[in-house]
Amino acid sequence: xxxxxxxxxxxxxxxxxxxxxxxxxxxxxxxxxxxxxxxxxxxxxxxxxxxxxxxxxxxxxxxxxxxxxxxxxxxxxxxxxxxxxxxxxxxxxxxxxxxxxxxxxxxxxxxxxxxxxxxxxxxxxxxxxxxxxxxxxxxxxxxxxxxxxxxxxxxxxxxxxxxxxxxxxxxxxxxxxxxxxxxxxxxxxxxxxxxxxxxxxxxxxxxxxxxxxxxxxxxxxxxxxxxxxxxxxxxxxxxxxxxxxxxxxxxxxxxxxxxxxxxxxxxxxxxxxxxxxxxxxxxxxxxxxxxxxxxxxxxxxxxxxxxxxxxxxxxxxxxxxxxxxxxxxxxxxxxxxxxxxxxxxxxxxxxxxxxxxxxxxxxxxxxxxxxxxxxxxxx
Length: 379
Known about the structure:
Elements: E1 3-7, H1 15-26, E2 32-33, E3 50-51, H2 67-75, E4 84-89, H3 99-104, E5 116-121, H4 132-137, H5 145-167, E6 172-175, H6 178-188, E7 192-194, H7 207-210, E8 217-220, H8 229-239, E9 243-246, H9 252-259, E10 265-268, H10 273-282, E11 285-288, H11 296-303, E12 308-311, E13 326-329, H12 334-344, H13 351-356, H14 363-378
Parallel strand pairs: 1-2, 1-4, 2-3, 4-5, 5-6, 6-7, 8-9, 8-11, 9-10, 11-12, 12-13
C-alpha cells in the first residue's frame, strides 16, 4: 500500500507531533508532506523523508501569518497517486485531495481513483472558529497586535468559507475526543470517529515515585497565550501555593513578570521524560487551565499518579473522573482555579488508582484502533 502522511508544520514539539510520530512509526516508508520543517525545533523525524515546498523559505516566526498560503499550498499538492493519505492536522493540511475525491468530482486522469484521505483532525481550525474571539483579543504579535487584529477581522469570513470547503474533501474524519467530535460536527457538518491519541503512559509510572508526594503543584506546556498558564501562576500566588512551571515558549517572559520573582513560582526548562515523570509523581496536583480538544500532558500526569485540576470544558472531560483522579473547575479564571485548589486539598486520592485510570490511552491501543479503522475504509 502506497501511503503519504501530511501535517500542517513540523517546527516544534507538541501533542500533535507525538501523534504524527506514532503514525510515522506505523508507516516508516511513507513520506511526510508539510509546509515548514525545522529539525532544530524538533529532531524526532531525522530518519523520515520530509517533503516541503516554497513555504519552507519563510521564517518559522511567520507561521501564524501564513494560514491562507498554507491552504493554497496543500490544496495544490497532487497526492492522487497514493492508496492512503493520512493528515494529522488542526489547521490547513486537510486541504489535500485524495484520488477518490477527485474521481467522484469527475476529474480526469486521476492516478489512483480509489485512494482515500483519512484526516486525524484534532479540531476545526481554532483561530477561524471556536477560539476566534480569544485569538482576536491577543494574536500574539506584541506591538503589531492592532494591525494583525484589523486585517484578521477583514479576512476571517472568506477564510472560514475556504476552510469549510476543504473540509469537504476529507473522505473520513478521525478525532481525539468527544469535544473535538462535536466541534467537527458543529463547524464542518461532518461526522468523526473518536480514537484517543497515544500517550506513553508506561514511561511515567513508577511505584516508588508515587509514594513521594511533595508540597508543590505543577504544570507543563508550551508557553503560548491560549494555554492560559498565567491562570495557574495567578491562582498559586492567590492561594500561596508553590508551583513548578516546566516548558518554554513566547509567553515565558510574561509569565515570569506575573510571578514577580516570587519564591512560590519556579520555572524549569524542558526535560527528558524520565526526569519529568519524577516531578509529576512528586506533585500534589497538576494544573490544567487550558481549553484543549484533548491534552496529552495531563494524561501523562495521571499516568504518573498525579491528580489533575482541569477546566470543565474540552477534552479533559473524557479522562477526568471527578473525585477519583482529579476535579474540574467551571470558569477559565484565576479565581475559579484558586477555589478549585482549595477544594482539591480537602479531598483524598489513591495515586495507584489514578495511574491505572488512563490505561486505555496507551500507544498499543491507538495503533490497534487506527489500523482497524484504516483497514475497514481501505476495504
